[in-house]
Design brief:
Elements: H1 8-13, E1 19-21, H2 25-29, H3 39-45, E2 52-55, H4 59-72, E3 76-79, E4 96-99, E5 106-110, E6 113-117, H5 122-130, E7 134-136, H6 148-154, H7 161-164, E8 173-179, E9 187-191, E10 207-217, E11 222-228, H8 231-241, E12 248-254, E13 274-280, H9 285-294, E14 298-304, H10 305-311, H11 323-331, E15 335-337, E16 340-341, H12 348-358, E17 362-363, E18 365-371, E19 374-379, E20 382-384, H13 388-400, E21 404-405, H14 413-416, H15 423-432, H16 444-451
Parallel strand pairs: 2-4, 3-4
Antiparallel strand pairs: 1-2, 5-6, 6-10, 7-10, 8-9, 8-10, 11-13, 11-14, 12-13, 12-18, 15-20, 16-19, 16-21, 17-20, 18-19
Bound molecules: flavin-adenine dinucleotide (FAD).
Amino acid sequence: MRDSHIDWDRFAGELNGIRTITSGGQLRGRSRDFSWYSPILNEQLKDCVADLIVFPRSEDDVKRIAALVSRWRVPLTIRGGGTGNYGQCVPLQGGVVMDMTDLKQVVEIGQGSVRVEAGARIGELQSAVRASGQDLLMFPSTLRVATIGGFIAGGYAGVGSIRHGILKDRDNVRGIRVVTVEDVPRVIELQGADIQKVHHAFGTNGIITQLELTLKPAQDWLHTITLFESYGDALRFCTAVSTPELDLYLLTSVERGFAPFYAHLGERFPHDRHAVFAMVSPQSIDAWRELAARHGGVESQCMNAHALEEHGLPPAYECAYNHTTLQALKTDRQWTYLQIAHPQPFDIELSERLAQEFGDEIYWHHEFARQFGEYRVFGIPLVRYTTAERQYEIMRIFESHGCATFDPHVVTIEDGGMKEIDHAQIDFKRLADPHGLLNPGKMRGWEELAAGTLAD
Ligand SMILES: Cc1cc2nc3c(=O)[nH]c(=O)nc-3n(C[C@H](O)[C@H](O)[C@H](O)COP(=O)(O)OP(=O)(O)OC[C@H]3O[C@@H](n4cnc5c(N)ncnc54)[C@H](O)[C@@H]3O)c2cc1C
């Protein structure tokens, strides 16, 4: 989908001193993300390819690129590690893809906070803060590849959310520094509640160059697997341990259907048992075990990260969040997934009835987390894909039971998320991207504004 009206070689020439790619397989490679999880998006996005990839190394480079994009009025899609699931960094209208991974300095680690450039890989950032005796509050299981800017711009929650809530929770992200896309780009620093203007906006309303994040003292988490004969018992146990009296960093339950995708775990996750994967603090492990025994749970693993490495075993979070889907897809491409938030209080009987109703069409996976201080249960069910119609029929069934669905088969922020237009994000886009060049097609509210159909 190259834009033949633009002389891309001349465009690249104006970026003298900044690495660019204007031809070859990397154009396609860096136009992809993990939207192939969805057969619907995979088909829809397969022809979307950037015309040029650019690799800034500093905020000044970012400003030069933003100025040129503004003067030439070409689309600009920002790319971190490219692990997003909704085509967030796929350039729908071609143009420039800006790969942020060379902007990766950890600027300053203080007591309780870190300032870091947006393109830093989360795993490297976590190692750096660990060396100071601290930990990030949360991360996705893709931490080796995903960037911290991509997580804040594209992510929602992750490993750590049972302890610290979601990214949107107050003070988890303290500050965001943004470069605007104008002929003369400006730098805007957002703090406190203002960061929500840019958080989870899919890179549509500003280029994040730096972030300030809260840190907590490091903890030597125990990666546990606890097995149950019935999935209902696994859910009852998870509900019982969702209490501030236990210090947990991860709490995930998966049905036994997932076991074949985790064959490397052997008897730690056998085919005839449902499993709870968790990260438990050493101080809480006795209380954890007592509650597990009371719910009929049998521990099949309990090791810290160092011991896991020695045994060649994966961390517990590789059987959590969207890593489960990845593991299933590695074995069998017929799977896809859905995302739901269960109504509160969590109704385990309803979950058991749904499991019965769908049988082998769905394997259940639940994440227990906190959001705005409250415990919440999210479902990331693995769904055997047949047709798009069936995906939407299943979503309607979940909704009829009071669940909120987050559609993973769409590219816009609003349709995948809360189904609401965020006027604060649109207002910020007016400031930071007045020509509408950033990641066009991903913010439905902006498109409706341009078409004159946006309701207040
Ligand atoms: C196996 C697997 C597990 C996952 N687990 C989780 C999870 O637990 N929680 C979760 O929330 N997500 C999860 N995800 C989704 C994804 O990994 C995360 O959102 C991840 O943090 C994205 O980071 P990235 O650097 O790869 O971003 P990308 O995919 O490169 O980008 C994501 C979005 O952010 C924008 N963006 C990137 N950098 C910037 C920047 N500097 N300024 C402005 N916008 C920017 C992009 O334009 C894009 O819209 C998972 C995905 C996979 C494949």
